[in-house]
Amino acid sequence: TSGLMAGKRGLVLGVANNRSIAWGICKALAAQGAELALTYQGDALKKRVEPLAAELGATLAGHCDVSDAASMDAVFALLEEKWGKLDFLVHAIGFSDKDELTGRYVDTSEGNFSKTMLISVYSFTALAQRAEKLMTEGGSMLTLTYYGAEKVMPHYNVMGVAKAALEASVRYLAVDLGGKAIRVNAISAGPIKTLAASGIGDFRYILKWNEYNSPLKRTVTIDEVGQSALYLLSDMSTAVTGEVHHVDSGYHTVGMKAVDAPDI
Ligand code: NAD
Q: What's its EC (predicted)?
């Protein structure tokens, strides 16, 4: 194969269907010659992920629930046996009870706070621990975050607190792993209608708001996130680490509603 990712092998977690951000990333990587391994969360998603993996000639690395250490161990054992090494890792996973992605942050329960942090934040570190061992020739790790980490966004609530912790963990991991030429970055994506996003209250309003008020006057696609991920996962960005890169039509740069924005 040829392309920017020729000879590179990586694990992608977070494909649920063909609207997943992880799927946009997979397509961009495969088009540049990357060899991919995909996991799925439970049998319900296996049916969706299996044909998608086949479409890209990717390895199906089995079920992986990041709240279950044994299922992560199994995936890495399989990759160690099959590939012996790993060049990149994509973490496109987040979860919070949708009953708490509406209303007030102050009402967050301890149980959902802990679960949101475990699945949306700690899992990236847990995967990094395992991936480090296989990244013997350096590597690149990428996670997905959102502007709700930096500023209060309606209904994002505990997920915003989790994304802030995730972005901080990107910086700590970048320092810990930098000596091994392993880079760790995040993409802060603008809102995209996916399965996970459908759990957020008034998501359509958020999409419209971003469309009317971002410098580019539009929302972003999973393919555009994929192209930016390609940069961060390839040798195009060998001196970039600890970075949170916004792929959001420039929304994070504006401080106020656009003067010409229509009412929503
Ligand atoms: P998605 O629903 O397609 O993907 C979310 C994935 O998380 C699914 O594949 C699901 O199986 C996985 N997941 C949830 N809990 C898991 C667990 N315990 N173990 C393993 N996997 C688990 O939605 P998406 O929008 O593509 O989300 C991907 C990432 O992008 C998330 O981190 C999300 O917060 C982030 N993000 C999304 C948007 C957006 O607007 N859609 C914007 C910025 C960031």
A: 1.3.1.9
